[in-house]
Amino acid sequence: MHAWPASEVPALPGKGRDLQIHDTATQGTITLDPGPVARIYVCGITPYDATHIGHAATYNAFDLVQRVWLDNKRQVHYVQNVTDVDDPLLERALRDGQDWTELAERETALFREDMTALRMLPPQHYIGAVEAIPGIVPLVERLRDAGAAYELEGDVYFSVESDPHFGGVSNLDAAAMRLLSAERGGDPDRAGKKNPLDPMLWMAARPGEPSWDGGSLGRGRPGWHIECVAIALDHLGMGFDIQGGGSDLAFPHHEMGASHAQALTGEFPMAKAYVHAGMVALHGEKMSKSKGNLVFVSALRRAGVDPAAIRLALLSHHYRANWEWTDAVLAEAVTRLERWRAAVSRPDGVPADALVEEVREALSRDLDAPAALAAVDRWVELQLASDETDESAPGLVSRTVDALLGVAL
Ligand code: 5CA
Ligand code: ZN
User: Fold this and answer.
1) Does residue 314 line the site of ligand 1, with CB under 6 A?
2) 248 CB under 6 A from ligand 1?
3) I want to staple 278 with a disulfide (CB 3.0 to 4.6 A). Which of 262, 322, 335, 366 is the partner?
């Protein structure tokens, strides 16, 4: 699939910083040393009800990761998927009486537009589940042939016990895993499984549902976790720097994905850091497709909200926090954007070299965007009140805010 156009990332004077990031697996902050090419896989959307503010907040977090790396003179190899066939997508298409491929295409197109408007840097490889199927089938066959997978009434399940590190991403106990498995696409109560947590790798064709040639697996379609693993291993290999997504993906999705990859390769770990963004809520509950309490980026744009203000609203919360979207959050961002624009539209002003370092420092410390915004706010306040005449200052601030925060002033 094609991704979306990249906005330019201005180069800044001085030196970038290494990224320190919170890793769910080790439950601490680690300093990543990615080498010249940093490798990141971020789970993409299931294309319906896109792009809501929760999605946008999560992709904003991983956009900041890229920006810290780029500022630190790393190349970034970024891969993202689109889950363009899966139960929830098929259920939505059925409910609304539309063709599932049309739904997926339309929503993916909308997602691309929203990402472009928000100045999120695109992945180099943007891969759909359907196009990944030829690569998924041999992986499932290999797992089965190695005894890490088994068949149940035509479906193929992964045996979580085949990975000695299983459980090490989410650090949950068995009871919590079982609950979450039932909530998030698993089938812990299905009879005949070796372990209730075992996830499906390949689902045999069901009447009325799309299916593909699965070689020795028979016709069917891939499970959710193996989709991301196949795409990640194909484009990044093992031991990549960051596996990213919202916190609702830590279990089962990232736990199972890591186990699939580790069982396939015998190597550990799949990723150096498992990074999870907090959940955005609306009216006191997690913004989710199932509850329907959604605010869409495209609806805000249609209502005339500047995408830069939406982005500032996302940035005003730490990526790991769970937070609530309200009109006040957006109003504050709109006001901030106006002030920042007024401050950089002066022809000269308060020297900003220290500000560049403050923003760098804040983001490198576990992507502390609120601290970065506070630093810019302080400069803006001085700038609007001062009669200093550094001619390079407004341009330098614009470039810093653009390069590190993705906000065009
Ligand atoms: N296609 C899979 C990943 S392979 C999927 O989870 N798709 S999704 O459309 O449901 O979610 C896309 C991303 O948005 C995921 O990282 C998910 O964790 C994140 N997300 C979903 N809802 C919210 C929310 N309310 N707040 C923050 N992030 C969210
Ligand atoms: Zn995924």
Assistant:
1) no
2) yes
3) 322
Please tell me whether residues 123 and 226 are part of one structural domain: yes
One domain for residues 265 and 376: no
From the CA of 39, how far away is ligand 1's center (Å)?
20
- What CATH number has the domain bearing residue 84? 3.40.50.620
- Report in angstroms the alpha-carbon separations of 365 from 19, 52, 225, 262, 356: 7, 27, 30, 29, 14
Asked if residue 43 has its Cβ within 6 Å of ligand 1, the reply is: yes
Q: Are 145 and 186 in contact (CB under 8 A)?
A: no
pLDDT recorded at residue 22: 98
Statement to judge: residues 290 and 354 lie in one domain = no
| Residue 162 in contact with ligand 1 by CB distance below 6 A | no
238 with 361, same domain: the answer is no
Q: Is residue 113 part of a domain?
A: yes
Prediction pTM value: 0.98
The percent of residues above 90 in pLDDT, for the chain, comes to: 99
Determine the structural domain holding residue 169 and report its residue range. Answer: 19-297
Compute the mean pLDDT over every residue in the chain, rounded to the nearest whole number: 98
How far does residue 28's CA lie from ligand 2's centre (Å)? Answer: 22
Are residues 85 and 134 both part of a single domain?
yes
Q: Which ligand is nearest to the CA of 46?
A: 1
DSSP alpha helix (H) spans, 52-126? 53-71, 87-95, 100-117
Output the CA–CA distances (angstroms, integers) from residue 131 to 137, 279, 380, in the order listed: 12, 29, 48
Which residue's CA is minimally distant from atom 6 of ligand 1?
45
CA distance 43 to 46: 9
pLDDT class of 181 with cuts at 50, 70, 90: very high
Residue 390 and residue 285 share a domain: no
**What is the 85 CA–ligand 2 centroid distance (Å)?**
12
Does 219 lie in the same domain as 108? yes
Regarding the beta carbon of 252 and ligand 1, being less than 6 Å apart is answered no
Domains contained in the chain, number: 2
